[in-house]
Write a sequence for this structure.
């Protein structure tokens, strides 16, 4: 992995650590206030990562349009990531859940651990899994991007699974810990997906941009002979 790509990975890992620690420290001992609830600084950072990833997908598609390669999945993936960013920033599915589904007791009978109305994000996860083989085919040629995609999918799956558990089954203090950790894992998933997209973009640019030719060196001893 080249220097810029390695630097990107290191920076995102550092960001994953510093953001939750900084937000928790800023509100200590009420560490969860800027992390666990919706519409907090944590969800803002998550949405920014998804926006960057989504826009990066369109850039990858643009590069592939020029150099050739499978590109149909990239605009679709980009649109999906931007939609998730909007959901994170404005808590869209939470508003639908709390305003319409939960008050009417709408639930999925074969998911007994899921609270009424809390199944929406599981549906989004199912759509993502359906598209995953196509996304994998688009990044597997780039080992670093493929690794980041696997990490992002695993972390996102863990986040969705934990988020689907009915919070009514937890005590208040346990729910704060659970929701805070879930948001940290979700941030890691978003940053990993962002890394997968940006690494793929950098890999394509590195492979297809013309390399700068080194300047020819003056012949050894030319200065001495001319003197």
């Amino acid at each position: 992995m080249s220097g810029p790509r390695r630097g990107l990975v290191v920076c995102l890992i550092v960001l994953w650590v510093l953001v939750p620690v900084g937000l928790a420290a800023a509100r200590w001992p009420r560490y969860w206030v800027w992390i666990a609830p919706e519409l907090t600084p944590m969800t803002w950072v998550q949405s920014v990562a998804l926006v960057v990833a989504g826009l990066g997908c369109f850039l990858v598609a643009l590069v592939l349009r020029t150099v050739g390669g499978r590109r149909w999945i990239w605009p679709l993936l980009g649109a999906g990531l931007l939609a998730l960013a909007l959901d994170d920033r404005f808590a869209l599915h939470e508003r639908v859940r709390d305003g319409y589904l939960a008050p009417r007791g709408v639930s999925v009978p074969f998911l007994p651990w899921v609270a009424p109305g809390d199944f929406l994000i599981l549906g989004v996860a199912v759509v993502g899994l359906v598209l995953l083989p196509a996304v994998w085919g688009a990044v597997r040629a780039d080992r670093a991007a493929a690794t980041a995609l696997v990490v992002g999918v695993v972390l996102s799956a863990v986040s969705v699974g934990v988020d689907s558990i009915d919070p009514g089954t937890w005590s208040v203090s346990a729910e704060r810990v659970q929701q805070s950790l879930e948001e940290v894992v979700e941030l890691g998933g978003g940053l990993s997906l962002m890394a997968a997209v940006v690494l793929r973009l950098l890999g394509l640019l590195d492979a297809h941009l013309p390399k700068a030719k080194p300047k020819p060196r003056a012949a050894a001893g030319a200065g001495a002979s001319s003197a």
Observations:
- The radius of gyration is 22 Å.
- The chain has a mean pLDDT of 87.
